[in-house]
Design brief:
The protein is mainly alpha-helical. Helix content is 83%, strand content 0%. Helix 5 packs antiparallel against helix 7. The radius of gyration is 23 Å and the shape is globular.
């Protein structure tokens, strides 16, 4: 019972923080998920479900129905899935992959519900709202004389407004990818923190591979190929096909970069000490001088390692 009270108290506290601190919701949300996963190492399934149900009631009271659905879709359901898998002794990779799957399904449901609830207005309505807010901001800037400073820097008001409109349009049309990335990052961090804390307490059930031995699931490569194909297909007209492809790429690239860095670190560790220093310096310079090229290079490494298995990690596991 003391363990049940501990997890109930602190998970509920994180739910209150999520509702009261909307600007930094992701931080208490990640801590909420971390505590739930740790609860899965100590408590029975029915106690976990009781804690989760009470957490949802707290969120409902503090944040209201409209925000509750978003919290559930992005953070709650993936955290619950990972918690139950931890309670049933699944390994780190199984928990991570299914947690990401739950996050993708949760965000998809949330976006579909939001679209239907808004009467089908969707992206165009959101873009109109953002443009309206941008117009209000421009009026305030005019009153404050900020555009006079921009003109001294060689930036006209018309150029500023065009740039702002382009930014709001891109943001609105890539909002789905932002939601997906937020949920996936939360899954990675929840499980990583829970693994670290459990290992400190000598619990090996959430033992994590060394970072340099992690590899991307090969299924994601085909998602990247599909996204690239759609992006190229609709590029001339900048239609919905184009934006579906670009959203997929926005989702895949951070994941590919993560696993690409894992591959690069593995290969660097194999080098001799003298060679390793030059390789690290060269890589740092590449990132500093050509950051976009570095991101593309690292993501390609992550994608190809998933198919080719540069490090022969999966081959060794099969043997």
């Amino acid at each position: 019972m003391p363990g049940f009270i501990f997890f109930l108290l602190f998970t509920s506290t994180m739910c209150v923080a999520m509702a009261l601190l909307p600007g930094i919701t992701m931080i208490p949300a990640i801590l909420w998920g971390t505590l739930l996963i740790l609860a899965g190492l100590y408590l029975e399934s029915y106690k976990i479900l009781i804690i989760f149900f009470i957490n949802i009631l707290v969120l409902f009271v503090m944040a209201g129905t409209s925000n509750l659905l978003g919290y559930l879709a992005l953070f709650g359901m993936p955290a619950l899935v990972m918690t139950l898998l931890a309670a049933y002794n699944k390994n780190y990779q199984q928990i991570q992959h299914r947690g990401v799957t739950a996050a993708i399904l949760g965000v998809s449901f949330f976006l579909l519900f939001s679209y239907l609830y808004s009467g089908g207005i969707g992206i165009n309505g959101l873009e109109a709202e953002l443009n309206k807010s941008a117009a209000e901001s421009i009026s305030i800037y005019e009153e404050m004389g900020i555009f006079d400073m921009y003109e001294q820097m060689g930036i006209s008001q018309a150029e500023f407004e065009m740039s702002l409109k382009s930014t709001t349009s891109a943001f609105a049309r890539h909002l789905p990818a932002i939601f997906y990335n937020q949920a996936i990052i939360a899954v990675f961090l929840m499980l990583s923190f829970a693994s670290y804390i459990s290992r400190k307490r000598n619990i090996e059930r959430l033992k994590k591979k060394p970072f340099r031995e992690e590899s991307m699931p090969w299924q994601l490569v085909w998602m990247a190929i599909a996204g690239l194909g759609l992006w190229i297909w609709g590029r001339d007209e900048l239609n919905n096909i184009y934006y579906v492809g670009s959203n997929i790429l926005w989702i895949i690239v951070p994941i590919a970069v993560y696993y690409g860095l894992s591959t690069i670190i593995f290969k660097i560790a194999e080098q001799k000490q003298s060679t390793r220093v030059f390789v690290i310096i060269g890589f740092i310079l590449l990132v500093m001088v050509f950051p976009l090229s570095a991101i593309i290079f690292v993501s390609i490494i992550g994608l190809f390692d998933s198919l080719v298995d540069f490090r022969k990690i999966r081959m060794e596991q099969e043997e």
